[in-house]
Amino acid sequence: MPINDTIGKISGNFKGKDIASTDQFSPKDFEKVFSVADEMKKDVQSHKPLSMLGGYAVGLMFFEPSTRTFSSFSSAAKRLGAVTIEHQNPAQSSSVAKGETLEDSMRVLEAYSDAIVLRHPEAGSAKRAADAVGIPVLNAGDGPNQHPSQTLLDLYTILEIFGHLDNLKIAFVGDPLHYRVFHGQFSGLSQYGGNTFYGISPKGLEMPKEYRNESYQDVVIDMKDVNKTLGEIKPDIVSVGRIPKEYISGDASQYNFVINADTLKELLPKSIIMHPLPRIDEITTDVDADPRAVYFSRQIRNGLYVRMALLGLVLGKIS
Ligand code: NCD
What we know:
alpha/beta, Rossmann fold, 319 residues, binds N-carbamoyl-L-aspartate, four-stranded parallel sheet, 9 strands, 15% strand
C-alpha cells in the first residue's frame, strides 16, 4: 500500500492528529485551516499579542536544509506563545551523528515537546516518526514524497487570488517525479471539480503513477520549448519548481529550463506563477516584479498564517 494511504484522515478533527500527507485532508479540512489562517493573518498584521500556545513547546527537527519552512514554523510557534526546541542539521549536531535512529530521536524530543515538526530526506519518514511518538508530528517535507504545510499555503494562496479551487488549469513545470510540492498540489487540487493538470517535464521526470488520474496529462518536452508549450496550454497557474538534484542520480543539469520575460508574454493576464522557493536559475529575476509572480509577494507570508493555524488546530487550541 502507498505510504500516504496508511495515514489517518483528518475528518474534521485536527486535535492530536499527525499531519503527514495532503491526502489526509478533505475540502472541508482545507477550508477549516484557511478560515483559521484568515484570523491569524489579521492578528499578525495588527501585531496582536497572542498566547494560545503559552505553556507549550514545539520541537523542530530539520534533517534537510530549509529557510522558509523552518523559519515560518519557528515564527508560528513563537508568535502563538510556544517555546521551540530547534535542531537544524541534526545529522551533524545531534545524537543522530552517533548513530541514533530517527525513532529514538523522536522519543527524546517527545519528552520535551508537545508537537514535532520534522523534515527528513526519506519518503515515509514522517509516518515512521509519527508511529514512534504519541504527540502530533507535522511533516515539513519527507524526501520526494509530501510537504503538506506547503500544499496548504499553496492552496490558500490560490484561493486568495482566484476565489475558488475548482475549474482551474494547472501546469507543473520541472520535475513532477521527485518534487514533493507538485505531489501535494496535485492531490489537494484533485479533490476539487473541473481542474485539469499538465506536467511539463523532461522525459523520465513524469508524475509518479500512484498520483495520476484522468485529469492529469503529461507534456513531455524538450524544455527549450517550455514557453511555446505554456502559450498553447494557457494555464491559470504555472507552478514552477527547481530540479531537485539531491534526488536525482546522474547529471541533473541536462534537465535545466528557464522561465523568463518571454514566458510572461505567453501567459494570460489572470495567470499566476507560483514557486515554493528556493529558486535557483529556473526563473530569471526579471520575472519577480510582474504582478503575476506570487512567490515573493504572497506565498512566503501565507506560509506563516497556515502554519500558525495548523499548530493551533493539532494542539487542540482551536476547534
Ligand atoms: C521546497 C521543499 O523543501 O520541498 N521548499 C520549501 O519548503 N519552501 C522546495 C524545494 O526544496 O525546492
